[in-house]
Specification:
The chain is α/β, with parallel strands linked by helices. It is about 45% helix and about 20% strand. It binds ligand C2E and calcium ion (3 copies). This is Bifunctional diguanylate cyclase/phosphodiesterase.
């Protein structure tokens, strides 16, 4: 086999090597990225069924040597190195700082912040959340923390404790990318979750097999008392179907791409003067 396709084997090894080298390089670069102020947040609106903005989701961006590196690539690296805890603190602060500013235009606007599992279970997390919302005088219910279903993998006691500590601060909890991971409906049943974000993959296929999932989550939301957000809405058709399903909140390129902070501010002021 090797003799027959020597060049293919060589390419394969080169690819592997290239990926590994890139990881090592990015890991090195990530060490000082916070200090060098290479990170920033962009903001994507979440709208209600009337198309009115209700919140922004803060999404991290990393500019390294004139290149934008995707969070899909650098977040897992920071999770592996543990650096996500420190950087996550920065994200939360930056997002709350922006929220405080945005509230001068719309006092009820919410901010959704992605929290990685490692950060969520870090000892100092709850205190940090408390401190930040106090510092920026933010009513807790305006801050929504997005965690993925992987939080359910730790034991029930630990989850419930963390969730109730956070809810004592008033902050809301969302399950991100719902339907893609380790989802146990019974766990959700036992938990006090505020929002569920249905993953983009179901919205993409809403005209075919995605619909039954969306309907099932909608039905569940009524008895279990959580709100539903559809993410990754890209077309009018998708929006229409979701509306027919009674989905109260939507997010996606159809409404807006993530925006730089100044753009997001303009978007909000324009929406408020309508
Ligand atoms: P996510 O939390 O599921 O965020 C949604 C992702 O989908 C974002 O990608 C967003 O730009 C993109 N998106 C939004 N609407 C659409 C749409 O209509 N179509 C398509 N195709 N994509 C859409 P992004 O910004 O590249 O972020 C990727 C992931 O990186 C996030 O997925 C999240 O898991 C993670 N991430 C981003 N920022 C942070 C952060 O501050 N902390 C943590 N822990 N994770 C973050
Ligand atoms: Ca998210
Ligand atoms: Ca998501
Ligand atoms: Ca996702």
């Amino acid at each position: 086999q090797k003799a027959k396709y020597p060049e293919r084997v060589a390419f394969y090894n080169l690819d592997l090597e290239h990926n590994l080298l890139r990881k090592i390089m990015l890991n090195e670069a990530l060490k000082g990225a916070l200090e060098r102020q290479e990170f920033r947040l962009v903001y994507q609106p979440i709208v209600d069924s009337a198309g009115q903005i209700v919140s922004f989701e803060a999404l991290m961006r990393w500019r390294y040597q004139d290149q934008e590196i995707s969070p899909v690539e650098f977040i897992p690296l920071m999770e592996q190195s543990g650096r996500i805890v420190e950087v996550g603190i920065w994200v939360l602060e930056e997002a709350c700082k922006t929220l405080a500013k945005m509230r001068q235009c719309n006092a009820d606007i919410c901010m959704c912040v992605n929290i990685s599992l490692i950060q969520f279970y870090d000892k100092g997390f709850v205190n940090h959340v408390k401190r930040v919302i106090e510092q920026y005088a933010i009513p807790g219910h305006l801050l929504h923390l997005e965690v993925t279903e992987s939080i359910f993998r730790s034991d029930q006691m630990q989850i419930n404790q963390k969730v109730s500590q956070l809810q004592q601060c008033g902050v809301k909890l969302s399950i991100d990318d719902f339907g893609t991971g380790y989802s146990s409906l019974s766990v959700i049943q036992n938990m006090n979750i505020d929002y569920i974000k249905i993953d983009r993959s179901f919205i993409q296929h809403i005209e075919q097999k995605g619909l039954s999932i969306v309907q099932a989550v909608m039905n569940m939301s009524k008895s279990l008392n959580f709100m539903v957000i559809a993410e990754g809405v890209e077309t009018y058709k998708q929006r229409q179907i979701l509306e027919q399903c009674g989905i109260p909140y939507m997010q996606g390129y159809y409404f807006s791409r993530p925006m730089e902070q100044s753009e997001a501010w303009n978007y909000l002021t324009a929406a408020s003067s309508e």
